[in-house]
């Protein structure tokens, strides 16, 4: 329609009308481009918020899991401390026997730090990480990814050292419980074959348990470090989402 009128005006040399038609065409193209850009920007902001909310949920799950890890690891460490202290004194009262057996049973159980990065990995693989506009937020999230790899390398070393220690401890005790037990089920004195008198003089065994406790405490420290980093990211994410919700 506009093109036909423009041709007619050109044929009739109506320059004012031609100018008006050209302005209308240019203005229409400009408005169309702006509308398209606005729509694209709105969709990117919507997608950014969806991703940030998912990352926030991932971080909350990571924190919860690491807190559970610390609670379990602290229990393991306390049991290992009881084993070492009892053997050094060569004294074990009847009311401590179950805790002693459970402490030995829990030797070498691990609790590596957890970083749930599935949403970040999805964004990176799709080339959409740049949707996050806040550069500080991107730096914090990249920091979590680096810390995850760093801690994974450390836990590989810890696991290897725990394996070496448990070669010694597993050869000195015997599990004799009849029913199936899960890894978190407690073990009693009557469900272990333990020669307490022999272990009292076995410095190699005591050294191995002491080393295991040190490595367990190292895992607690790493989980606590992970929680600290995750909480910082969680606070920044919550603040960013709240600000974008008001805008």
What would your notes on this structure say?
- The protein has helices spanning 2-12, 15-89, 97-105, 118-125, 135-170, 196-200, 203-246, and strands spanning 173-175, 192-194.
- The protein has 247 residues and is mainly alpha-helical.
- It has a two-stranded antiparallel ribbon with strand order 1-2.
- Helix 2 (15-89) packs across helix 3 (97-105), helix 2 (15-89) packs antiparallel against helix 4 (118-125) and helix 5 (135-170) runs antiparallel to helix 7.
Number of domains: 1
Strand order, main sheet: write it out: 1-2
Structural class of the helices, strands and pairings?
Answer: mainly alpha
| Count of separate DSSP helical elements | 7
Helical content (DSSP H or I, runs of 4+): over 70%
**What's the helix-strand series?**
HHHHHEEHH
Q: How many strands appear in the DSSP assignment? A: 2
Uncertain runs with pLDDT below 50, 5 residues or more?
none
Label the overall shape.
rod-shaped
**Main β-sheet description:** 2 strands, antiparallel
- Mean pLDDT metric: 86
Q: What is the rounded distance between the termini?
A: 41 Å
């Amino acid at each position: 329609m506009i093109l036909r009128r423009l041709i007619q005006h050109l044929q009739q040399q109506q320059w004012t009308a031609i100018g008006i038609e050209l302005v209308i065409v240019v203005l229409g193209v400009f408005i169309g481009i702006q509308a398209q850009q606005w729509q694209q920007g709105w969709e990117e902001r919507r997608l950014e918020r969806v991703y940030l909310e998912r990352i926030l949920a991932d971080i909350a799950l990571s924190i919860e899991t690491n807190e559970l890890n610390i609670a379990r690891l602290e229990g393991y460490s306390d049991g290992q401390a009881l084993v070492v202290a009892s053997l050094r004194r060569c004294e074990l009262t009847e009311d401590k026997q179950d805790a002693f057996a459970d402490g030995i049973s829990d030797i070498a159980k691990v609790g590596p730090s957890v970083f749930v990065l599935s949403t970040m990995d999805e964004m990176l693989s799709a080339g959409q990480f740049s949707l996050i506009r806040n550069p500080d937020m991107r730096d914090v999230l990249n920091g979590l990814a680096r810390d995850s790899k760093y801690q994974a390398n450390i836990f590989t070393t810890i696991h290897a050292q725990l394996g070496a220690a448990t070669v010694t401890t597993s050869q000195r005790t015997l599990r004799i419980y009849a029913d199936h037990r899960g890894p978190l089920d407690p073990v009693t004195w009557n469900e272990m074959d333990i020669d307490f008198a022999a272990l009292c003089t076995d410095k190699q065994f005591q050294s191995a348990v002491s080393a295991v406790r040190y490595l367990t405490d190292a895992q607690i420290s790493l989980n606590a470090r992970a929680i600290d980093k995750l909480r910082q990211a969680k606070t920044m994410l919550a603040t960013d989402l709240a600000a974008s919700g008001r805008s």
